[in-house]
Design a protein that fits this description.
The protein is α+β, with helices and mostly antiparallel strands. It is about 25% helix and about 30% strand. The strands form five sheets. It has a six-stranded antiparallel barrel with strand order 3-12-15-14-13-16. Helix 6 runs antiparallel to helix 7. The longest helix has 30 residues. The C terminus is likely disordered.
């Protein structure tokens, strides 16, 4: 019993001593706690410096106090190890290791103000990388090689693409519009018979078709009447001129006869022009004057040499005035017409080389040169026409062939190419993760451009041959965003 009483007396005395010591420490802080209090006194309680002096003891690069930074002052390492304050896995003091302790905060640590300085900008194009961000000088370090292997990452090399800068678009071989003639008539007409077939080579003046028109007989009669009046007025003017020379006709009478002659001449020329626009040839007009035979049937003749490209008038159908009957083109003068997408049109200008290949037969190709670029877009397809003149063409290339055109915009160049799965947008930058070791990966900012369905072209950031993460790149992006995938698994070091 006495032993129990003695034990209780000793325990009560120990508690009293402890409370007295705690009260003493609260009233008189030690040098170390005084220093800590001084640091907090210059802080507003949220980590913002209010005195302007505490930020002088801050290493912004490594996010620890400058006076305690072992990366800047390696001589301090021994002191921390002596205090048993050392994280061997990451080579930092345990009290500084954010990988093991992500909630570490120092009183003099400034608030992050990047979001206030750099407003978010949205765009439908590939966004530009931010110059300064958390990605700079970052490393993702796995705790061990086994951990990295279990993460299931796969890497591929950055490819070296020797490419030619070109724009590809659907295209068609067409006759040169400046060397193409469309045959039309100005009166209602019916085609009684065609003498030629599409694809036939024809010559100027050759018979093409036999036509019938209810208006052509009237025009022929008007032409004969105008011709007769023109002949009478010509004779009267010649007689009046003779009389005037002998002063047997007044000047006013002579001028009246001369005006009548000019009017008859104009009427005659006008009716002749109507016959020519209705499909008559000059020789047909002369034959009409000689025969004086009026008929509603007449012959349509070619007005130029070339190839009969198309017959648009069916036999036996009465066509209204102005309808085209046929088209004559020059087979030696053809164009390549490509329909280029709106986004590519600005890169094309006159003089660029063009290559055309027939659909299904890419071996046969023809070369050309851009001669015209449309300054407007088709409102339905949102494409612009690019026209090129053929420079060389094999015999198998004919008008109205469809195919693909390559328009070369620049000289050949070498580009780095990465898989689309390797590129991640981490909030402010496009990044890929370059493998430095089996358990270490470094995020690298890249500028990307359009490629194919599986790859991006990389304008800057990586070089051909470097190994980048493909499968698992999103996992590493998550690591960048939150600092750690799992405690002790892997982490983010800023060096």
């Amino acid at each position: 019993m006495k032993n129990w009483v003695l034990y209780l007396i000793i325990l009560a005395a120990g508690i009293a001593v402890g409370l007295g010591s705690r009260s003493f420490m609260s009233s008189e802080p030690s040098a170390e706690s005084a220093e800590t209090t001084s640091e907090y006194s210059a802080n507003d309680g949220h980590g913002n410096d209010t005195s302007g002096a505490s930020t002088l003891d801050w290493c912004a690069e490594h996010r620890v106090p400058e006076s305690q930074c072992t990366l800047c002052h390696p001589e301090l390492i021994a002191e921390f190890k002596a205090k048993n304050d050392w994280c061997g896995g990451h080579g930092l003091p345990e009290s500084h290791c954010r990988l093991c302790n992500p909630d570490i905060h120092f009183p003099q640590e400034p608030l992050q103000t990047v979001a206030l300085i750099e407003p978010i900008r949205t765009s439908v194009f590939y966004p530009a990388n931010v110059v300064d961000c958390a990605t700079n000088n970052s490393i993702i370090q796995f705790a061990s090689v086994e951990t990295a292997t279990r993460a299931g990452l796969s890497v591929e090399p950055v490819l070296n693409e020797q490419s030619e800068a070109f724009i590809e678009a659907p295209a068609e071989i067409r006759f040169d519009d400046t060397k193409t003639t469309t045959l039309t008539i100005t009166v209602p007409v019916l085609v009684a018979r065609w003498f030629v077939e599409p694809g036939d080579r024809i010559f100027s003046g050759q018979k093409l078709a036999e036509l019938e028109s209810p208006d052509i007989a009237r025009l022929q009669a008007d032409y004969l009447e105008a011709s007769a009046r023109h002949a009478v007025s010509t004779q009267e003017l010649a007689r009046a001129k003779s009389l005037r020379e002998r002063d047997l006709l007044s000047q006013s009478e002579y001028e009246k006869l001369e005006a009548d002659f000019r009017a008859a001449e104009a009427i005659f020329a006008g009716v002749r022009g109507l016959l020519l626009t209705a499909g008559f040839a000059a020789t047909d007009c002369d034959d009409l004057l000689a025969s004086k035979q009026v008929s509603q049937r007449y012959t349509l003749r070619a007005t130029s040499n070339g190839l009969l490209v198309e017959r648009r008038a069916p036999v036996g159908e009465l066509l209204e005035a102005g309808r085209p009957l046929a088209m004559i083109g020059d087979p030696s003068e053809v164009w390549i017409e490509a329909q280029v997408r709106e986004r590519d049109l600005a890169e094309i200008h006159e003089g660029q080389a063009v290559e055309f290949s027939i659909d299904g037969n890419a071996v046969e190709r023809v070369a050309g040169k851009v001669i015209w670029v449309a300054q407007y877009l088709d409102p339905k397809t949102r494409t612009g026409t690019v026209r090129a003149k053929l420079l060389s063409a094999p015999g198998g290339v004919k008008a109205n062939l469809f195919g693909r055109a390559k328009i070369y915009t620049d000289d050949d160049n070498t580009l780095a190419v990465v898989s689309r799965d390797a590129v991640q947008w981490e909030g402010c930058c496009n990044v890929v993760f370059v493998q430095e070791a089996v358990d270490r990966y470094r995020p690298r900012k890249v500028s990307i451009a359009r490629g194919d369905n599986d790859h991006y072209r990389v304008l800057s950031g990586v070089a051909p041959g470097e190994m980048v993460v493909v499968d698992g790149s999103y996992l590493l992006k998550t690591e960048l965003k939150k600092g750690s995938i799992g405690a002790g698994c892997c982490g983010l070091e800023a060096r």
